[in-house]
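note to self: dont lose this again. the chain is below, predicted strucutre after it. 334 aa total, dont forget to put it in the shared folder this time
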Amino acid sequence: MAVTMNDVAKAAGVSLKTVSNVINNYEFIRPATKQRVLDAIDELGYETNLTARSLRSGKTKMLGLVLADLSIPYYAELASDIMKAAWSRGYRVLVEQSGNEAEHEKAALQGQFRSLTDGLLFIPLTLGAQQIIDAAGKKPLVLLGEFVQDPRLDMVLIQNHEAAAAVTTHLLAGGRRRIAVLGADDGETTGSAGLRLSGYKAALADAGVEYDPALVVRCEWRRDGGAAAVAGLLDSGADFDAVFGLNDALALGALHELLVLGKRVPEEIAVAGFDDIEEARFASPSLTTVAPGRAEIAERAVELLIERIEGNMAAPEVRQLQAAFELRVRKSAT
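---
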C-alpha cells in the first residue's frame, strides 16, 4: 500500500497541515519540526511530486514559464525554444497560461505553480512592476517582453523600436508612402505595440513622410483581427499601399484578406509582419518580417534565471539584456 501524507504526519508526530507546509516549502516552520517531517519522509519512502523528492536540496530542477496564450504562434515557438534551452542545462519547464488576466498572473507568482519551480520566466501583460515585486517572493524571476520595464527587475527584451523602424524603412525604400499599421492605438507608447509604433513613426520622420493616424488600426493580435482591420480600411476608402502588422498573425490575416478581395501582393499592396513565426516562410506569397532573436531570447533568459537559482541572486546589479534582430525580406514586400 502506498505511503500517504497521513502516514508521514503520524510518524513525525505533527498535523497533516504541517506535512503539507513542509512539502510546499512554507518558510515559517520551526527547523526541528521540518527535520522530523523530512526524516519521516525518508524513512517511509514517501513521494508526492517533484517538490517532495527535492526537499533535501531545496531544488526541483523545474523552471516556470508564464505567458498569455499558447495558441498565439510566437508564444508557442518561444516556449519550445525555452524548453530546449532548459533541457540542455538539466532543467525542465512547467508552462502556465495567464489568459491576460491579472488574477491568473498573480496566482502564478505566489501560488502552487510557484512552489513547484525554482525560478520563473514571466511575460506580464496586466500586472505592473510594483505588483510583480510585491507578489514574487524570494525565488528568482526574469521578465520577458516589454509591458513592464523597471530597473529593479531582471529581463530580456526585444529591440521593438529599432526592428519596427527597419521594417518601415524597407517598405519606404520600396516606394511605399501610405503604410497602414495594424495592432496599435494612435498615441500608444508603451509595451510592444507602443514601441513598434514609435519605430514606425521614427522611420517615417527620417524619410520625410507625414504620419497619418487614420492608417493606424487597433485590433486583436490574431489573424482574424488583421483580416478585419484590412477589410475595414478598404471599406472606408483609405488610401494605402502597404500594411505593417505588428505581429505575423496580423500580417498573415491581412495578407489572406487582401488576396481574397482581389488585391495583388506586393504589386498593389505590400505586406510585412513581426516575429518570423514558422508560418511566415510558407505563406503565399511568403511574408517579409522581423526575426526578433527568439532563440537568443530563450537562451539568455534561461541562462540568467539558472544563474540566479544556482547562487548568483546577490549579483551587484540587475541585468537587462536585448536580443539581436534580423529583417527577413520575402516576396510579400520585396
